[in-house]
Predict the 3D structure of the following.
Amino acid sequence: MKIVPFEMERMQSIWENQVEINLSESGVHPLTVGELLGRAEDRERLLGLALGYPQTNGTIPLRTAIAAMYPGATPDHVHVTNGGSEANFCSCWSLLEPADEVVMMAPNYMQTWGIAQAFAGSVRSWPLRETGGRWRPDIEALRALLTSRTKLLLICNPNNPTGACFDAATLDAICREAARHGTWIISDEIYRGAELAGLETPSIWGRYERAIVTCGLSKAYGLPGLRIGWIVGPPSFVAGTWAYHDYTSIAPGAINDRLALAALAPATRARILQRTRGILNTNFAALTAWLAARADLFSFIPPEAGAIVYARFHRPIGSGRLVERLRVEKGVLLVPGDQFGMDGYLRIGFGGPAHELFDGLARLESLLRTLSPEP
Ligand SMILES: Cc1ncc(COP(=O)(O)O)c(C=O)c1O
């Protein structure tokens, strides 16, 4: 089976550790192990951990801690994976057959776009609309896209790359449309907890019997190196995805499982998410001012969550070409809109150190100023 290249991940994998300034990351600056395990006794306990295989779908304490975040869920509703990406992979793999149709919110994290193309018969995009200064799902358009052959609807809430959050009424409307056809929904909620205003985005969890959550610690928690993600859904579905995990990586790492448990202890979780919001709000206020002062170059809808702003740029150059020139000539990495199927945009990550962000932006501006404005 052939699979289309996942362009953004390929680009990041090759360049993110080689450029001077990496603004392609969508999460916040990562925590150190020391910051995560503040107390000496917790570090000592970690040193005593035997490095055997852990329970392969996640240890019971970790699945219990995850289940506690989803009202009514038990450890049997939870499967722990290596990152949100393995959660998406096992969920899609377990659901999709060659004749199935898939509908995907767009723009979106393109992993599931590539997987769905390989495993299903057709994938169609369901574009968000820019209306009233927000990115919004168009429910009428969704109704027109879904058919009795639509096995799966893929959404991302909070959304990557726009940072838009969808409210409970919108999620209920999406579920109602899916329920007409028995369509499964996978809601990638990996940016939940990274809301700038601090109000957690509603989850799809509990709204529909075929609604699946994929999530993890890589974005809102600033712990991408832990490679911990999870699937939450009905026990029979979740047990099915575990059988696929046996063929991918077998189990999460034992240290990762243990550190994830530490991160989700209620007091630690609150401390981590507060840190995330602190970083986001400090950088975002300054970034908004910077962009607003350059309205001839950029326009944007402010994100509600995540360390990313999706900005339209006003110069006549393809986004892929612009990003390549920025990397080669200025040593800065951004994500081009064309990697989300939308040329004319840039995704700018603002979760890192402020001095790097503004150094990178100054370099971006200096390159854009060499290009004549659009006619
Ligand atoms: C929406 C979304 N889901 C999943 C992932 C992958 O998460 P992980 O690094 O935990 O595999 C990303 C990474 O950028 C993402 O943006």
